[in-house]
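Record 1 of the preview.
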Amino acid sequence: LTSTAWAFVPAAKILRPEIGIISHPCRAQQVQPSSRIFLASNTGDSSIDNDNTPDVGNIAKYLVATSLQFGILAGALKLIDKLVFLPKPVVGLLFAFLSLRSRIASVLDNSRPNREAQDGKATPSDVKRPSWTPPGIAFPFIWLTITGLRAVSSAMIYGQTERLCSAPLLSMILHLCIGDTWNTITNTEKRLGVSAIGCVVVWISVWNAIIRYYKVIPLAGKILAPSGVWISIATVLTYSIWRINTPVQPLWPVKGDGKSASFKWSNLGQLQPTSI
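->
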């Protein structure tokens, strides 16, 4: 799920509700009574910021980047519809490409995990994983299989609707865009908590696509359904990884946590050639 090493500042180890004491290797500090546990991440200096204020700017960045990517891809499909009628096999190849490289239209760094740098493991060695985590080598095969299922089912939908810019196929495009933003959160920003929430959004988007495909052609929905099953498993895995890695990170981006990926127009057109 991730590609580089992480470092964390130790969070609260002792919390007494009546006085709120947070212990630290260098100092103990009395804070105001509070019902929540403050979490902190290492930003490269020795100071600790216990402010868990949500970073509204980063939340807006995720929404804008996803919407912009969706708009670019949807516009491209609409343009193709106006110019030419594609054979079904070509549409299958198109959606296979988008399944692997939809991030070509993203302004964020959507790099996938580099399995080679992680010694073939699903996550970096310093990230705790549940015992049932699939081996890293399984992920490329799983995603290549899902790519094939997306291609076949999307070609079937196109054969029925005769339009690329149709509601079912656009639901797939939206799913891919949300997944790309989730990859930025997980692999570039290393935000475990935000990743856990984001994976739920990815899960909702894939089942939305499956249902829409099923309504047009039931068989197409059934062909796409295994991708929903896998993402259901991935959602539980992402949540489990978030919970077992301490200190537990917040479920939202935090101001000053030093993990924000840049919004860059130069990311458009880049394929980020890392492993799946």
